[in-house]
Amino acid sequence: MPNDVLPFILALVLGYLSGSIPFGLILTRAAGLGDIRKIGSGNIGATNVLRTGNRWVAFFTLVLDALKAAIPVLLARALWGEEAAMLAAVGAFLGHCFPVWLRFKGGKGVAVMIGSLLALAWPVGLIFCAVWLLIAFTRKLSSLAALTAAATAPIFAYIFASQWLALTVLLLALILFYQHRTNIARLLDGSEPPIGGSKKTA
């Protein structure tokens, strides 16, 4: 294996292993809230953790999911450079959405995308958060907020950083859209429950 390829593979693996840590599952079990995979949509992200009614557990899930992406990105950048950092972000995203330990059924990637963007180019990460908050507060739809923020993120990545980061963010956005495919169907037919709604969502 060429030495110049090895750092990229290591960055991808590092990101995947970190991203695949199921903090939502770990924290809900530690708090005595049961198996998060049997609640609401069944995914391990902060939005589903919030359906347990424990806002603090959901908050810490959000923070830790963001950190499990930001840390490998920053570490990969320090060890192997900017291109490796982007690959670490992709790895973390794949690890969170498709963790091998949970039969490849993970979260939808919003918190991981926030952590990745803040570590890769913090202005883009802040804009992502701002767009999410704007749509969430005005439309009261978490999935629509996430999809809008993800759809616009590659544009801001291109403006504030580089075309390579824009392509990386585009890849993350496409995976995020795939993970939200059932939400998209409900948004189109008007059945998507608002933030705080009690309907079961996938």
UniProtKB/TrEMBL annotation:
Q: Which organism is it from?
A: Devosia oryzisoli
This protein's superkingdom? Bacteria
Record carries keyword Hydrolase: no
Q: Where in the cell is it found?
A: Cell membrane
Task: Show the catalytic activity.
Answer: an acyl phosphate + sn-glycerol 3-phosphate = a 1-acyl-sn-glycero-3-phosphate + phosphate
Q: Note whether Lipid biosynthesis occurs among the keywords.
A: yes
- Enumerate the GO terms in the molecular function aspect: acyl-phosphate glycerol-3-phosphate acyltransferase activity
Q: What does this protein do?
A: Catalyzes the transfer of an acyl group from acyl-phosphate (acyl-PO(4)) to glycerol-3-phosphate (G3P) to form lysophosphatidic acid (LPA). This enzyme utilizes acyl-phosphate as fatty acyl donor, but not acyl-CoA or acyl-ACP.
The record's subunit annotation is: Probably interacts with PlsX.
Question: What keywords is this UniProt entry annotated with?
Answer: Cell membrane, Lipid biosynthesis, Lipid metabolism, Membrane, Phospholipid biosynthesis, Phospholipid metabolism, Transferase, Transmembrane, Transmembrane helix
Q: Which family does it belong to?
A: Belongs to the PlsY family.
Which pathway does it take part in? Answer: Lipid metabolism; phospholipid metabolism
* Enzyme class, spelled out: transferase
Its membrane topology, per UniProt?
Multi-pass membrane protein
Give one Pfam hit by family name: G3P_acyltransf
What processes does the entry annotate via GO biological process terms? Answer: phospholipid biosynthetic process
What's the protein here called?
Answer: Glycerol-3-phosphate acyltransferase
What Gene Ontology cellular component terms go with this record?
A: plasma membrane
Annotated membrane-spanning segments are 6-28, 56-78, 84-102, 109-135, 155-178
Q: What EC number(s) are associated with this protein in UniProt?
A: 2.3.1.275
